[in-house]
Specification:
heterodimer, A: 661 residues, alpha+beta, FAD/NAD(P)-binding domain, eight-stranded mixed sheet, seven-stranded mixed sheet, 24 strands, disordered N terminus, B: 251 residues, alpha/beta, Rossmann fold, two-stranded antiparallel ribbon, 11 strands, mitochondrion (chain B), ET-Flavoprotein_bsu_CS (chain B)
Chain lengths: 661, 251
């Protein structure tokens, strides 16, 4: 029987040869052998027909024969991960499949807490060679590159991409002036087919704004050869390309936990349980999450990815990479459809100055895409000091500038959205490899701040990780090769050259601009020193008493709008009856610290008005969390002064619905 | 007994729609599409009836261009056994759909045809009623509760009507259209979605079914409803009467 086991384990790795596996499974005697070996597995005798089906299918049967010990470790950590006990439920309607290693999951009474039930329903476990979290530029580039390598070497690897958005591209938002360097490497012939990358940059303007004027300055950017695109559209296009190559992409499923084995090696991810109501009980359509196990797991969650942050902390990846903390900015953006006469496809504009004060780093952008559509947005570094600053209102103010407003007048807003982005650059890159996988894209932080482009480096990092993954799986080499590949690539060189621009602004806007000019025109990135970042963003907020509230004017409904109107345009939707996905580590801190000391900054920096201080019946101000508004921007996770707010992933399929952002 | 469920691919309910600049319709490119919520409820009800042992097979049916296959795969992932795709132009009016459904019913001979009460893109609320008329089957529309009696071959349907709830007893085969409170549809699980990807979906054309789908209706123009004007504060009753008479012309 051991020999039989080993045969089945071997065929497990060639998962695509499913017919072979199913042929082996057809041998009905094997089924009965396995049932009897699960001695401590009191499986219910009433097995619904769905289970028979599962048993017969090659996918689940293959997982059935996983080495038992790996699942044991799994069981322990699964219970440990569910700290709040919300996902521990009895499964009264027996739909749980008859699964492997079930004996170890019978730790029924040990989980503790009032929310634990006596029988934990097992999750179905599906195996892949590679599991990728996030169908963004980095994740999809990794998947596509892997499949390309498979074709070159005539092998096959099963690749699964899970995406928390309802569709591929639904959570993708970016400026975006796209440098096609990585795309040229990924798809050398992409220009010969129809793609969303079709509007070349036609002009590049840079203005310094004051309240009434706009002064044209020489553009610090060189956008020749670049394109104005909607990144959401590009990612959708990449998604179809990936599926054509055989990548399995599953939107609507949120990876909410990491799965470990007994040696604390990452073996995959677990998706959210769906159908839990606000109070934590099961709804009518409760559905247990699934475990997606991969020989390698790649995290491509974008900036401040929730699982990536856990992994970075867990494995001390910042210390390992000699990296500083990451610094961030919040970008708020709208796509407008403007008058035909005002539209100039390929027009690129960046501004600095008004309405942002000299102590805050940020700027705005205005890009003309096709079909009379333009992208306009404001990016504000999150290490701003004034807790009364409201990035959303600053954006509305910007649109009223006499040089900007005429462009927008007569137009309509099509979509609105917001997302944080990395500004740490070279100094903040953690070591991106962990036992069992690696992190790619903005979850590591490859954005080139002076260029304000991160898509091309994110894609390249995905491709480099793919190459390391391929060699690891095929030849048994180590994933450390990813780190080495990164350091030898143009990503490293580019970020190294760009490393001092942003930190220079810690000394103020004028020194910052001066140093930028020095770097750009004279030193050209060969400066001997590397400047360090200032305080982490959440520590940079001053107390409210040293600032005064900022008065923002009411929206005019034509060019500026209130938050609910803008939110409606983001197509944000969450299943209302689910527990809030924003956790307060200490529920008393908002009223004890945030409100009195910092005047409740979360009610101002959140671009979706998730956080509101409302007066309750006792006349006190209490924090109300409108979790269903959340745009998944992660600003609260970054900027909360006491780091009390933890952004966790809600039920898959919720969140914004960007299509042209 | 087989159950046939008709599902429609519509603009997702959470999407903010806008009218196309040329006013020919609603902008559907680059817009998220999903299964009509009432169709999901219909499919869920069919699945529950099957799980209760009162039916042997659930067949999901959709009509339109190839994108309908996504909706059918969602249906298969939820638990439908088979799916049929009728390859037809994207704009099909309820009568054409009803005729196609009748043709499919004549082929598959289900004991129950369940549909959503209306589609959220056109809000017609006609297809179920029309197909019942064409088939000469009893109909229970706006169902908020369905109880099947297999032996007596009868469906007891509680309907939500303007005055409250009405209970009807329908002899099978029958047509039922579902309302919101009937059930809460299940999530399609990841393993089921994976399996549904490889299932074969049968494709038929209106010609094969001998159905003429040409419609006598044509959409001429689609416009947004007029924007709500701000209210006007009046200072006295006389002013109110004056405005009602001379401006609003209602008295």
């Amino acid at each position: 029987m051991i020999g039989f086991l080993s045969i089945l384990c071997k065929s497990n790795s060639l998962r695509s040869h499913s017919s072979k596996i199913s042929h082996l499974i057809q041998n009905s005697s094997s089924k009965s052998i396995f049932r009897s070996t699960h001695l401590s597995n009191p499986i219910n005798n009433s097995i619904p027909s769905s289970i028979q089906f599962n048993f017969g299918s090659p996918i689940s049967s293959a997982s059935f024969f996983l080495p038992g010990f790996s699942v044991k470790g799994l069981a322990f950590t699964n219970w440990a991960e569910k700290g709040d006990g919300l996902s521990l439920f009895s499964n009264s309607s027996l739909r749980c499949p008859f699964k492997e290693g079930a004996g170890f999951l019978r730790l029924r009474s040990s989980a503790g807490g009032s929310r634990t039930f006596s029988s934990e329903s097992e999750r179905e476990s599906i195996n892949y060679d590679v599991v990728i979290v996030g169908a963004g530029p980095a994740g999809l580039s990794a998947a596509i590159r892997l499949k390309q390598l498979c074709r070159e070497k005539d092998v096959d690897l099963s690749i699964c991409v899970v995406e928390k958005g309802a569709e591929v591209g639904a959570h993708i938002i970016s400026g975006n002036v796209f440098e096609p360097r990585a795309l040229d490497e990924l798809f050398p012939l992409w220009r010969q087919e129809e793609s969303p990358v079709c509007v070349p940059v036609s002009s590049d303007k840079f203005w310094l704004l004051t309240k009434e004027h706009a002064f044209s300055l020489p553009s610090p950017f060189d956008n020749k050869g670049n394109y104005v695109i909607s990144l959401s559209q590009l990612v959708r296009w990449m998604g179809t390309k990936a599926e054509e190559l055989g990548v399995e992409i599953y939107p609507g499923f949120a990876a909410s936990e990491i799965l470990y084995d007994a040696n604390h090696k990452v073996v995959g991810i677990g998706t959210n349980d769906m159908g839990i109501s606000k109070d934590g009980s099961k709804r009518e359509n409760f559905q247990r999450g699934v475990e997606l196990k991969g020989r390698i797991t790649l995290l491509a969650e974008g900036c401040r990815g929730s699982l990536s942050e856990k992994i970075i902390r867990d494995y001390n990846l910042r210390e390992k990479g000699n990296a500083q903390h990451q610094t961030y900015a919040l970008g708020i953006k709208e796509v407008w459809e403007i008058d035909e006469g005002k539209h100039k496809p390929g027009f690129v504009l960046h501004t600095v100055g008004w309405p942002i004060d000299s102590k805050t780093y940020g700027g705005s952008f205005l890009y003309h895409m096709k079909d009379r559509q333009i992208s306009i947005g404001l990016v504000l570094a999150l290490n701003y000091r004034n807790p009364f600053l409201n990035p959303y209102e600053e954006f509305q103010k910007l649109k009223h500038h006499p040089a900007i407003k005429p462009i927008l007048e007569g137009g309509t807003v099509l979509q609105y959205g917001a997302r944080t982005l990395n500004e740490g650059g070279f100094q903040s890159i953690p070591y991106p490899v962990f036992p069992g996988g690696a992190i790619v894209g903005c979850s590591v932080g490859f954005l080139n701040v002076p260029k304000i482009k991160g898509t091309h480096t994110a894609m390249k990092s995905g491709m480099l990780a793919a190459e390391a993954v391929f060699h690891t799986l095929q030849e048994g080499s180590s994933m450390e090769a990813y780190w080495d590949n990164l350091k030898k690539s143009w990503v490293w060189e580019e970020l190294y050259r760009a490393r001092n621009y942003r930190p220079a602004f810690e000394y103020g806007m004028i020194p910052g601009l001066a140093l930028s000019a020095l770097e750009h025109y004279i030193l050209k990135g060969r400066s001997p020193l590397t400047l360090k970042h200032g305080k982490p963003d959440h520590e940079a907020t001053d107390v409210a008493s040293v600032h005064s509230p900022i008065h923002y004017s009411k929206p005019d409904g034509l060019v500026s709008f209130d938050v609910p109107t803008s939110l409606y345009r983001s197509n944000t939707n969450h299943e209302h009856d689910q527990p809030a996905h924003l956790h307060l580590r200490d529920p008393t801190i908002p009223e004890r610290v945030n409100l009195p000391k910092y005047a409740g900054p979360e009610s101002r920096y959140c671009p979706a008005r998730v956080y509101e201080y409302v007066i309750n019946e006792q006349g006190q101000q209490k924090l109300q969390i409108n979790a269903q508004n959340c745009l998944h921007c992660k600003a609260c996770d970054i900027k909360d002064p006491k780091q009390n707010i933890e952004w966790t992933v809600p039920e898959g399929g919720g969140g914004p619905g960007y299509s042209i952002m | 007994m087989k159950i046939m469920v008709a599902v429609k691919r519509v603009v997702d309910y959470a999407v903010k729609i806008r009218v196309k600049p040329d006013k020919s319709g609603v902008e559907t490119s680059n817009v998220k599409m999903s299964m009509n919520p009432f169709c999901e409820i219909a499919l869920e009800e069919a699945l529950r009836i099957k799980e209760a042992g009162l039916a042997s097979e659930v067949i999901a049916v959709s009509m339109g261009p190839n994108q309908c296959l996504d909706t059918l795969r969602t249906g298969l992932a939820m638990g439908a056994d088979r799916a049929i795709h009728v390859d037809a132009p994207p704009t099909l009016y309820p009568l054409s759909v009803a005729k196609l459904l009748k043709a499919l019913v004549d082929v598959e001979k289900p004991g129950l045809l369940i549909l959503g009460k209306q589609a959220i893109d056109d809000d017609c609320n006609q297809t179920g009623q029309m197909v019942a008329g064409l088939l000469n089957w009893p109909q229970g529309t706006f169902a908020s509760k369905v109880v099947l009696d297999k032996e007596k071959q009868v469906a007891t349907v509680e309907r939500e009507v303007d005055g409250g709830l009405e209970t009807l007893c329908l002899d099978l085969p029958a047509v039922i259209t579902t309302d919101l409170r009937l059930n809460q549809p299940r999530y399609a699980t990841l393993p089921n979605i994976m399996k549904a990807k490889s299932k074969v979906i049968k494709k038929v054309t209106p010609q094969e079914l001998n159905v003429e789908i040409k419609s006598d209706l044509e959409v001429v123009q689609v416009t947004e409803p007029p924007k709500r004007k701000a209210g006007v504060l009046v200072s006295s009753v006389d002013e109110l009467i004056d405005k009602l008479r001379n401006e609003a012309h209602v008295i």
